[in-house]
Structure formats: C-alpha cells, structure tokens
Amino acid sequence: MVSLRGLFVTGTDTGVGKTVAAAALMHRYRSGPETTRTPIRYWKPIQTGIAQDDDTAQVRWLGACSDEEIFDRGVRLERPLSPHLAARLSGVTIHLSGITELVGAEPTALRWIVEGAGGVLVPINDSQLMVDLIVALGLPALVVSRTALGTINHTLLTLEALRARSVAVAGVLMNGEPNRENRDAIEKYGGAQVVGELPRLEPLTPEAVARVAGCIAPSDDRLSELLS
Length: 228
Ligand SMILES: Nc1ncnc2c1ncn2[C@@H]1O[C@H](COP(=O)(O)OP(=O)(O)O)[C@@H](O)[C@H]1O
Ligand SMILES: [Mg+2]
Fold this sequence. Notes:
Layout: E1 6-11, H1 18-28, E2 40-43, E3 46-47, H2 55-62, E4 70-71, E5 75-76, H3 83-89, H4 96-103, E6 111-115, H5 130-137, E7 141-146, H6 151-164, E8 169-175, H7 180-190, E9 194-198, H8 206-212, H9 222-227
Parallel strand pairs: 1-6, 1-7, 2-4, 2-6, 3-5, 7-8, 8-9
Helix pairs in contact: 1-2, 1-8, 6-7
C-alpha cells in the first residue's frame, strides 16, 4: 500500500476515453508558472497490447508532456487482452506489491494522474481486480464514461463497485456528444458529480485537447484540491 496524491482515471469500459481524458487533465492541471506549479505526472501502471496501444506515448503527445511529466514504468504486456490473461499467456504474474514499489520512493510533492486498464472489475491476476490496484495506490477515482445510451447503467455499476471497496469518487467525466438527460441521471441516481464533458474532437490533436481541457471542472475546485 502507498498513499499517492492525485487521481486514478478509470472508466466504464475499455475504449471509453480514459487516455484522452488523462491528456486533458494534464493540460488542465498544469496551469501556473513553471517554478511554482505542483509537479503533475502521468502513469500507466499496467499496459497490455503495448505494440499497438501505448497510452503513455499517446498522453505524452496529446498532453504535450515533458519528460518529467511522464512515468513510464510498470507492467508492459504484448497481447491486447485483459491483464490477467495477457500476463498468464506471457508466463508472468502481476503482483500489486511490484507495482506499488515502483512509486513508493517518488517525491511526495508529486500529483499523479494514473490510468487504469479497462474498467474497475478487470482481473489483474488470479484473485485481484483493477479496483484492488486503486485501493493499493490510495487514490480517489475519476470515472470516464460515454455520453451515449447505455451509459447510465455502466456508470452506476462502476460507482457501486468503487464504493463497495470504499474508494473515494472524485467525479464522472463524460466523453462524447453531450447528452443532458444522461448527465442528469448519473448525478441523480449515482450521487456523483459530473465534472465535465469532453466533446468528440476531429481531428484529435494536442491543440484540440488543450482547447477542451477547460471543460473539466470549470467552476468546481474539488479536482483542483486533489491535484494541488
Ligand atoms: N473526445 C474524443 N474525441 C476524439 N476521439 C476520441 C475521443 N475520446 C476518445 N477518442 C478515441 O477513441 C479511442 C478510445 O479512446 P481512449 O482514450 O484510448 O480510451 P481508453 O483509454 O478508455 O481505452 C481512441 O482511438 C481515441 O483516440
Ligand atoms: Mg487508455
């Protein structure tokens, strides 16, 4: 167990926009003059399908990150599968202690933007799930969810799973064509705040992500508190 400061970016599914959201968070919370700003750092502790999906490289690009803002260590697996299966097929076992050890000695001044793999109940070994990693890192969770039909159920299930393990929920970030009814339903039935809506960006570039990053928590300072 460690106790990092920052956010664990999880989501209702794979492909839901966690990586784009993480890049937007880097733009959003990097504000302030370089000398006084709290150092912020992106970390992908478990990456499967590394040959085709390198979220670290994607955030480095979309988030216009410096070398210091990227922590590129962790479990890196070839096959584009759930971590438990990608690991088993590579003949390795993912141990939470091996992951927490990587960051245990890092400066306490850092604020972390950690990205999970898949959703919260994705297995990482024979007995543990992604949510156990969230607990082991001691971070509050930001849930990235789609705006489209189906999102209410997926988002509420994710919130329940987090709360069942006493993970603090920092909020929900919705990704896609804005849908007011779905947003309202998530806040009403999920008891969580929607901290922003990321529109579909075409083309998806660092400049476009920087432009919409201000949509995240524009008036609320809950996330700012966690990241400052
Ligand atoms: N707001 C967006 N605008 C344009 N493309 C997006 C947006 N959000 C996600 N995508 C694209 O959708 C795919 C999945 O997004 P990604 O952030 O990688 O999801 P996850 O990290 O949850 O697997 C990627 O190809 C990404 O570029
Ligand atoms: Mg990703």
